[in-house]
Design brief:
This protein is of the alpha+beta class. Helices cover about 20% and strands about 45% of the residues.
């Protein structure tokens, strides 16, 4: 082996030894650093510290014949003092059982008016009760929020109509024939008297009916107004659907407010009316009244040579009604 290669080999061995030495030193340093942290942490846990923790809360025994009308906090933030290990255990614990606030038993400050029953609760008075419920080996020094406000109104009842909130599309040559109905068509709503005064109906949850070709019946849920109850949760909605056909009729035009000194002749004197009806109404529409008129009451014959035709009467079971022509020409003849 040449002197140059021998030198290179020696240099590589020295470099590798240094790297192993540095790695070993880092490992030893890290071990003792971690060990120091563990001893420090254990020592800290044995001392008294302060911390915060959230707890769910549940309220029981509300006043009878009353209903809550305001929102209450569903969590309370507790400031706790005690041994570090106790607080750490509480913070790292699993699901927490809700703290109970018994309205009948806790002391509260009451204010009243004619209908609304109001009171407020100072949460510092609950610390002892909370400590018993938690079975804590630490002290609860503060509860946030420091005050909880309650508002109760009388429970009242009111009957309101049901409004069907739907969109209906039928297949071609089909239509809705008759009124959309629901059973029951009204429900009893219960809740705070002050709220019921502003509620006039209850809607169904929106639903879209697509491509109907026959009568459809569906149960739809009712929209629930917060803080109220309903005598029914659902209603049965019926959409009557029937096959339809087009009807074409020709009807004469009637002249209104014709001058006494002249005779008006119309060209043409009839119009063609087209409409869509259900098959079951076909025979009825042939005999049903259709009235078309030309009203001369406000016509200035000096500036117009055509008269507008108005369709003023047609059966309510006819849909998509249209007519032609909508204007006609005229000729004035002396009587």
């Amino acid at each position: 082996m040449s002197p140059i290669k021998l030198k290179e080999n020696l240099t590589q061995r020295i470099s590798g030894y240094k790297k192993r030495l540095v790695t070993r030193e880092v490992a030893v340093f890290s071990f003792f650093l971690l060990l120091s942290f563990v001893f420090w942490f254990l020592n800290a846990l044995s001392k008294d510290i302060s911390g915060k923790t959230d707890y769910p809360v549940r309220y029981i025994n509300f006043p009878k014949e009353r209903v809550l009308v305001n929102e209450l906090p569903d969590h309370l933030k507790l400031t706790i003092n005690g041994a570090g290990y106790s607080i750490l255990k509480k913070k790292l614990g699993g699901g927490k059982t809700p703290l109970l606030i018994d309205i009948e038993k806790v002391s509260h400050e009451v204010t009243r008016d004619d209908d609304i029953y109001r009171f407020y609760l100072l949460t510092y008075r609950l610390r002892e009760s909370f400590s018993r419920q938690i079975r804590a080996d630490f002290e609860i020094s503060y509860v946030h929020p420091d005050t909880i406000f309650f508002e109760f109104d009388y429970i009242d009842f009111k009957s309101v109509p049901v409004v069907v909130d739907i969109d209906v599309n039928t297949q071609r040559q089909f239509l809705i024939h008759g009124d959309i109905s629901c059973v029951p068509d009204s429900v009893t709503i219960s809740g705070p008297r002050s709220m019921l005064d502003t509620i006039y109906d209850v809607k169904t949850k929106f639903f879209k009916f697509e491509q109907l070709n026959q009568t459809s019946v569906k149960n739809l849920a009712l929209e629930v107004v917060p803080k109220t109850g309903l005598s029914e949760k659902k209603v049965e909605v019926t959409i009557p659907v029937e096959q339809c056909t087009e009807v074409v009729k020709e009807i004469p035009i009637t002249i209104l407010n014709e001058p006494d000194t002249a005779m008006i002749r119309l060209f043409p004197d009839r119009i063609s009316v087209q409409c869509i009806v259900a098959l079951s109404d076909y025979n009825k529409v042939l005999d049903a009244p259709f009235d078309a008129v030309v009203d001369l009451g406000n016509v200035d014959f000096r500036v117009t040579n055509k008269l507008r035709v108005e369709l003023i009467n047609f059966p309510d079971f006819a849909s998509q009604v249209r007519y032609n022509p909508q204007v006609v020409e005229y000729l004035i003849e002396k009587k």
